[in-house]
């Protein structure tokens, strides 16, 4: 749904009416004049939106994330994938050199790394949520 600017609509109507009165020989000048006014309106809207975003950032709000997850998902996925990739050779080395106790220690370390990472990420997300909830509107 497009946003309609009543002032811009009036300008367009006036330009079209002027074109009817003056004839087609002044059409390019009229179109150019209207385009300059349109560009000014667009510039004003862009500046206003940027100013609103700067105010939100100054208040501590984060810009909206693009749809499709975000960096938290990819960070968790990366650690999990790396753990699985490294688990195979580490398990082999541990089992060959230390047997079942070495294999158990190896997997305890892998699970521990993932647990610490998950807990620290959960802590970070909780702090972000608390910060957002405490903001003034």
Structure in words:
There is one protein chain. With 137 residues, this protein is mainly alpha-helical. It has helices spanning 6-22, 27-58, 71-133. Helix content is 82%, strand content 0%. Helix 1 (6-22) packs antiparallel against helix 2. The longest helix is centred in the C-terminal third of the chain and has 63 residues, at 71-133. The radius of gyration is 30 Å and the shape is rod-shaped. The mean pLDDT is 80.
Helix percentage range = over 70%
Number of helices: 3
What oligomeric state do these chains adopt?
single chain
Contiguous uncertain segments of 5+ residues: none
Strand content: under 5%
Amino- and carboxy-terminal Cα gap? 27 Å
Order of helices and strands: HHH
For the report, how would you describe the main beta sheet?
none
In total, the number of strands is 0
Mean pLDDT: 80
Return Rg in Å: 30 Å
Q: Based on CA inertia axes, which overall geometry fits?
A: rod-shaped
Structural class: mainly alpha
């Amino acid at each position: 749904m497009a946003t309609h600017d009543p002032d811009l609509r009036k300008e367009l109507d006036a330009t079209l009416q002027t074109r009817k009165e003056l004839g087609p020989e002044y059409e390019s000048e009229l179109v150019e004049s209207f385009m300059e006014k349109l560009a000014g309106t667009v510039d004003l809207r862009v500046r206003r939106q940027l100013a609103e975003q700067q105010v939100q950032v100054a208040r501590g709000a984060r810009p909206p994330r693009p749809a499709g997850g975000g960096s938290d998902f990819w960070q968790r996925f990366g650690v999990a994938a790396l753990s699985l990739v490294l688990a195979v050779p580490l398990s082999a080395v541990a089992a060959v050199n230390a047997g079942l106790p070495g294999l158990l220690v190896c997997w305890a370390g892998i699970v521990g790394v993932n647990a610490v990472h998950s807990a620290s990420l959960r802590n970070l997300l909780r702090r972000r949520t608390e910060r957002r909830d405490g903001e003034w509107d």
